[in-house]
Design a protein that fits this description.
By secondary structure, this protein is an alpha+beta fold. The protein is built from 20 helices and 20 strands. Helix content is about 35%, strand content about 15%. The strands form 6 sheets. The chain has a 5-stranded antiparallel beta sheet with strand order 7-6-12-11-10, with helices on both faces. It has a 5-stranded mixed beta sheet with strand order 14-20-19-16-17, with no helix packed on it. Strands 2-1-5 form a 3-stranded mixed beta sheet, with helices on one face. A hairpin with a 2-residue loop joins strand 16 and strand 17. Pfam families: BiPBP_C, Transgly, Transpeptidase.
Length: about 675
């Protein structure tokens, strides 16, 4: 009995020494790397996954956190795998004793004694579970993890590293692949399958062995019913739920923009874009459906932006990124192309701003020569004297070139640059052809230009990354009055059949040779830009912006929102008047240096064949009506046509003269052969 105190002291000393040694042993544990490379993710404005990329080892490993996981799944996981998780120090002696006893009685392993922390240790080191050496190492790592991390951090490690079959790692990847949704809300059947999969991820893969997957899930559900987490009626209904037999593809929305974001910051794990995933998902099938009947090789692109904030809400560089026949991998939103007539609104807006014209100003749509440049209208016809409003709405070429000549091509290029556009100009020096699309811009450029017009004439910094939001107002492209006048004209352009008239201001365009079809439009909040064509730039016979791109534009608006936002009212200083009420200089467009008439035929010095009964006359330039004189004597007055025939005089020399309405004239000396 006298030795008992000594024994107790010795026991306490040995226990303390063992405890200290164990503490040192645990503290000296060399922990594996806790953070594995996650899949790079591209998220929309609301945090919705647009696209993900596999990690460098080829695995889908999408990071998640406890607050992004269904609480029912977490309760089911802990009840099934480690019900004393929040009470043990990393190992559960009771579970180990139970497992050892069962193994001794049955001669084989019946149940495991691993805690969730031990499973995390195994996952971190990718170690096996069948050897005592490996089990001892897991215990040591588990004890060390518990000392360095809290329970929620350990559980988060499990959620991010557990295997779910194939190259799926982590709960979020498993939930997206097997159920097509993140794990925030799971049914009991879905949660049970995701609890069962990590224990035998290959044997229970639903796409390869659905029977084993169902059996594993149902065992988890039965255990939950025994634990009181699931009622008997719920158990019967839940076990009837089907097991998914195919993997869902991971989201791959906005692939071109996602690739651009990743290329801009390759090391970032998360890329936050201004896009709206739901809108993107609605527009991508629309673009595919639109180009499908147009023949092989045709592609299309589309951009939706909020012109009030500059945020790009949808970005489609092609109908299908994987369609090699249509070169779907080419992002056509950034490909420089001829914009056709889509720059005309800027020309008119600049002319309104300079006081050269007003929407109701009369302007000539007649054959004209501007130096060596002789444009023609798209349809080969001329409409004579029309208003600037009608000229823009019907996209006549002669009037806009006349305005561009009065402004100077450099003024048009400067307007583009103020909008944030750097056009590609052939030869580097702009000519009058720029008014008709004789330069290179991108679909993003056109969206930027029209966003500025819609924004009261002030440039908008379109952006697709949330960090690039514009904090200061952009430069003025047009005065607000001129911008409103342009929008008011474009609102009156006839919309496609069955589309709402007068709600969207828009312009179409077709580049030279039918290579590109365009449509750009806006309402009071949004701008949409559309391109259709071939990525290689070859012609598309019969393609017109009004016929193909405009219907797509209006369908895109319909998928964007239930009804267009109203366009704004005119600014206070806007001159709204009929032609007769305009100031005299604005009633009719008259260039500072008006081009006088010219005798295109017969030319000066011409010798005409003998026996000519009628003399054909063709006029260029000038302002009708015309007076024709032969040897000083009037032979035709009040002529508004530019082609006519005169009785031919006899053999010899004659002088043919023309005088236009402004008093300018031209003459030609001609000889009639005997």
């Amino acid at each position: 009995m006298r030795r008992l105190p000594l024994v107790l002291v010795a026991a306490l000393f040995i226990g303390a020494a063992a405890r200290d040694a164990t503490d040192r042993w645990i503290a000296a544990t060399d922990l594996p790397v806790l953070v594995a490379e996650s899949s790079a993710e591209v998220l929309d404005r609301n945090g919705v996954l647009l696209r993900a990329y596999t990690a460098a080892d080829g695995r889908w490993r999408l990071a998640t956190s406890l607050d992004a996981v269904d609480p029912g799944y977490l309760a089911m996981l802990i009840a099934r795998e480690d019900r004393r998780f929040y009470r043990h120090p990393g190992i559960d002696p009771l579970a180990l004793a139970r497992a050892a006893g069962q193994a001794l009685r049955h001669g084989r392993v019946v149940s495991g004694g691993s805690t969730l922390t031990m499973q995390v240790a195994r996952l971190l080191e990718d170690s096996g579970t069948g050897h005592w050496g490996g089990k001892l190492r897991q215990m040591r790592v588990a004890l060390a993890l518990e000392r360095r991390l809290d329970k929620d951090e350990i559980l988060t490690l499990y959620l991010n590293r557990a295997p779910f079959g194939g190259n799926l790692e982590g709960l979020r990847a498993g939930s997206l692949a097997w159920f097509g949704k993140p794990p925030r809300r799971l049914s009991p059947a879905e949660a049970a399958l995701l609890v069962a999969l990590p224990q035998a991820p290959e044997d229970r893969r639903p796409d390869r062995n659905p029977a084993a997957a169902r059996a594993g899930r149902d065992r988890v559900l039965a255990r939950m019913a025994q634990a009181g987490l699931l009622g008997a009626g719920d158990l019967a209904a839940t076990t009837r739920a089907p097991v998914p037999e195919t993997r869902h593809p991971f989201p791959a929305l906005a692939p071109h923009l996602a690739d651009r974001a990743r290329a801009a910051d390759p090391g970032a794990a998360l890329h936050h874009l201004t896009l709206e995933a739901g809108l993107q998902a609605r527009l991508e099938p629309l673009l595919r459906r639109t180009v499908a009947p147009l023949g092989p090789g045709l592609s299309a692109a589309l951009i939706v932006a909020d012109h009030r904030t500059g945020e790009i809400l949808a970005h489609l560089g092609s109908p299908d990124f994987t369609d090699s026949a249509r070169a779907g991998y080419v992002d056509m939103t950034i490909a420089p192309r001829s914009p056709g007539s889509t720059l005309k609104p800027l020309v008119y807006g600049l002319a309104f701003a300079e006081g050269l014209a007003h929407p109701e100003t009369l302007i000539e749509d007649r054959p004209a020569t501007f130096g060596s440049y002789r444009p023609s209208n798209f349809d080969g016809t001329f409409r004579g004297t029309i208003t600037a409003r009608a000229a823009l709405q019907s996209s006549r070429n002669i009037p806009v070139v006349a305005l561009a000549e009065a402004l100077g091509p450099a003024r048009l290029v400067a307007g583009l640059e103020r909008a944030g556009i750097t056009p590609a100009i052939p030869g580097g020096v702009p000519g009058l052809a720029v008014a008709l699309g004789g330069l290179g811009v991108t679909l993003e450029d056109l969206a930027r230009l029209y966003a500025g017009i819609a924004n009261g004439g002030r440039a908008v910094g379109l952006h697709w990354q949330t960090a690039d939001a514009q904090t200061t107002p952009g430069p003025a492209i047009l005065p607000s009055e001129a911008a409103w006048q342009v929008a008011d004209i474009l609102r009156g352009t006839p919309a496609p059949p069955a589309a709402a008239q007068g709600r969207i201001a828009f312009k179409t365009g077709t580049s030279y040779g039918h290579r590109d079809a365009w449509a750009v439009g806006f309402d009071g909040a949004h701008v949409i830009a559309v391109w259709i064509g071939r990525p290689d730039g070859t012609p598309v016979p019969g393609a017109f912006g009004a016929d193909s791109a405009a219907p797509l534009l209006f369908e895109a608006f319909a998928r964007l929102k239930p009804a267009p936002h109203p366009l704004p009212p005119p600014p206070p200083g806007t001159l709204i008047a009929a032609n007769a009420d305009l100031p005299q200089p604005l009633r009719r467009f008259a260039p500072a240096q008006a081009t006088g008439p010219r005798l295109a035929f017969p030319p000066d010095g011409a010798t005409l064949a003998p026996g000519l009964g009628l003399l054909p006359v063709r006029l260029d330039g000038g302002t009708p009506p015309f007076t024709l004189l032969l040897d000083g004597a009037p032979v035709v007055t009040g002529l508004r046509l530019r082609e006519t025939h005169l009785p031919a005089p006899g053999p010899g020399f004659a002088t043919l003269s023309v005088i236009d309405a402004t008093g300018q004239g031209a003459r030609a000396s001609i000889q009639f052969a005997p």
